[in-house]
Design goal:
By secondary structure, the chain is α+β, with helices and mostly antiparallel strands. The protein has helices at about 15-25, 35-40, 90-105, 120-130, and strands at about 5-10, 50-55, 55-65, 75-85, 110-115. The protein is globular and about 45 Å long.
Length: about 140
């Protein structure tokens, strides 16, 4: 993976990110990644990156900054990530996360959060390898009908 390049996410990456998401879920992606870029990434002070291998996008990690709320200091949140299924387990996600951590550390942000479904053991294991642990938050949900 020494040829792997990490670079900032760009709007034109939306199609490749959608392709990776569809490969992971094995269903067409319903996420408008161009809108995600426009709403959360562009000009927000966030750190979002793609991994390229031989000029092709093979992974992504999208995060954003949250400036306070419910007693939390300015923090970062990893909202989405994906790696081409056939390349999982080769350190691509870790390299993306390390770049995000580097950027936020330079910005003085100390806490990075994410939410993972309790039954997503692969994602839980991945974040554990990055030294994530349970936080002081409990995710709450209300279903609107």
């Amino acid at each position: 993976m020494e040829r792997l390049q990490i670079r900032a996410l760009r709007a034109e990456d939306a199609g490749e990110i959608s392709r990776i998401q569809s490969a992971i879920t094995q269903t067409p992606s319903e996420i408008d990644f161009k809108k995600v870029f426009d709403d959360q990434v562009k000009g927000s002070g966030s750190a979002s990156f793609v991994a390229e291998l031989e000029g092709r996008v093979v992974g992504y990690m999208i995060s954003y900054v949250l400036s306070g709320g419910f007693g939390i200091e300015k923090s970062a949140w990893i909202a989405m990530l994906g790696v081409e299924p056939q390349l999982m387990g080769r350190g691509i996600g870790k390299r993306l996360a390390q770049e995000i951590f580097r950027v936020y550390k330079e910005k003085g942000i100390r806490n990075v959060y994410t939410s993972v479904r309790w039954d997503s053991t692969d994602l839980l294991s991945f974040f554990k390898t990055l030294d994530f642990d349970r936080s002081d938050f409990i995710n709450l949900r209300k279903v609107l009908e």
